[in-house]
Amino acid sequence: MTDFTELIDLAAERLGGAVLYANDDFFAPKENLLKPSAPIFIEGKYTDRGKWMDGWESRRRRTPGFDWCIIRLGLPGIIRGVVCDTSFFRGNYPEQCSIEACAIEGNPDVERLTSDEIQWTEILPISQLKGDSQNPFAVEANERFTHLRFKIYPDGGVARLRVYGQVVPDWSALSRRGEIDLAAAENGALVLTCSDMFFGHRHNLIMPGRAANMSDGWETKRRRGPGYDWSVIKLGAKGEIRRIEVDTSHFKGNYPDACSLEACDDEDKKVDESNISSLAWKEILPRTKLQAHTRHFYEEEIKPAGAVTHVRFKIYPDGGVSRLRIYGTIKGSED
């Protein structure tokens, strides 16, 4: 769709995102807005309030104004773009939408978030929407935000809202912890690119928690020729790798035969598909056999490589991995 959709969805439910309040959700509940699944339509399904719709839908407005809801981002960060998905809303979608954002530490309640003390910053001005469409909007805002106020004009239904951006954690707090997962999405890591992700998205590798099932991992198609599959991860912070976990949970007949890990220090270079092969990769974990549906832990096998910024994870020849954890210390945190 657009480049920003390759980033992390900061509002995703599995990262802790939630719709905390809506001024009206008469026809369809506000919680649908952040559901991870793609919206669906069920012909002939009705509730006692009207047609069942897989989204957030307010009643028909008979007075001037707009409808709105407040969203807590699952992870704080810099927003690069949003997708306002109006799938299946054809005669009942909003004409326009806008988004404001704020940054509040802690866990503010609805009373505070709806009070006049909150200073909201407009990140998406009033913009036209199309019905039954994805509606992507790039956002130019370089501030770290934690909450959104999503407005629809004048009323209607939106199936999903995706909020893509770069995670910006509390670095001072992370540094005090000592060892952290340098490859965790919640700590600012990002899977930049991969050789293939036919069955499972590459970002699943660095999501929090254990995988729910096989679809919640990174899985490539069956390789019919020589070679291996790979993914490149930009670590949340430059650090020294101490331990690695490779989790193949749920992958039983389709786990990789082996894996390996390399790392490099390219803090000042933009790493992408065009220069991956030319980087000075250092072997961290040599090619190592894997087992089905198993959490593999490596510590003594790790080769020291100093402070690094990126890792390249290889699987031989193909298959699926639920999670990759790369534990280490942030450069300077031990000084």
CATH topology of the largest domain: Jelly Rolls
Report the C-alpha radius of gyration, rounded.
22 Å
Query: What is the domain tally?
Result: 2
For the record, the CATH architecture of the largest domain stands as Sandwich
- The dominant shape is globular
Q: Indicate the low-confidence ranges by residue numbers.
A: none
Query: CATH homologous superfamily name of the largest domain?
Result: Galactose-binding domain-like
User: Please, what is the oligomeric state?
Assistant: single chain
CATH class of the largest domain: Mainly Beta
Helix content: under 10%
Question: Helix segment count?
Answer: 2
Please characterize this protein's 3D structure.
The protein is mainly beta and 335 residues long. The chain has 2 domains: 3-167, Jelly Rolls (Sandwich); 171-330, Jelly Rolls. Helix content is 3%, strand content 41%. The protein contains 2 helices and 22 strands. It has helices at residues 110-113, 171-177; strands at 8-9, 18-22, 46-47, 50-51, 56-57, 67-85, 96-102, 121-128, 136-138, 145-153, 157-158, 160-167, 179-181, 190-194, 218-219, 229-247, 258-264, 282-289, 295-298, 307-316, 320-321, 323-330. The strands form 5 sheets. Strands 1, 2, 6, 7, 8, 9, 10 and 12 form an 8-stranded antiparallel β-sheet that branches. Strands 13, 14, 16, 17, 18, 19, 20 and 22 form an 8-stranded antiparallel β-sheet that branches. A two-stranded antiparallel sheet has the order 3-4. Strand 3 and strand 4 (50-51) form a beta hairpin. It is globular.
